[in-house]
Each structure stands twice: as C-alpha cells, then as structure tokens.
C-alpha cells in the first residue's frame, strides 16, 4: 500500500464511475483492510475526524488526483499492483 501525507483526499475524474462504497470505520488501518479485501478497490481515502472511508476503483495516476483536504486528518491510500 502507498499512503499519502495527512491533509489529502482522492478526487476521481469520474466520481460515479470510480466510486465503490463509503463506510464508517474506526481507523485508517481498518479502511485499508476493507479496500484490500475488495477485489475492485485500488484507492481509498479515510478521514480520521469523521471516520469516513471511501473506496474507489481505477489507477490512482490516470483516474484522478490526490488533492488537499479541508480536514488535516484525511489521508489517501492506494494498492500497489504489478502491471
């Protein structure tokens, strides 16, 4: 897994096409585990204040951007996968 610095979130180029699900979970680790267990998930972001975990499909480099978040506790993670 790759992990961003704090204060960032994922902004997909096509939210409806790439968004998989949104859940409340207790930690960044739990959010990462949820993404890892979903075969379609490649990208997730987690807000430690709201405990919101968002899961996305697609390639983080070509399917969106990591952008600054209004929350200092938001981070983005992505699965490493071999091409």
TrEMBL record:
InterPro entries: Pan_app. Residues 21-79 form the Apple domain. Coiled coil: none annotated. It comes from the Eukaryota. Pfam families: PAN_1 (PF00024). This is Apple domain-containing protein.
């Amino acid at each position: 897994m790759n992990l961003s610095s704090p204060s960032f979130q994922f902004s997909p180029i096509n939210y409806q096409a790439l968004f998989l699900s949104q859940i409340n979970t207790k930690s960044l680790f739990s959010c990462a585990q949820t993404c890892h267990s979903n075969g379609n998930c490649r990208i997730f972001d987690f807000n430690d204040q709201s405990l919101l975990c968002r899961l996305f499909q697609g390639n983080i480099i070509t399917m969106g951007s990591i952008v600054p978040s209004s929350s200092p506790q938001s981070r983005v993670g992505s699965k490493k996968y071999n091409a």
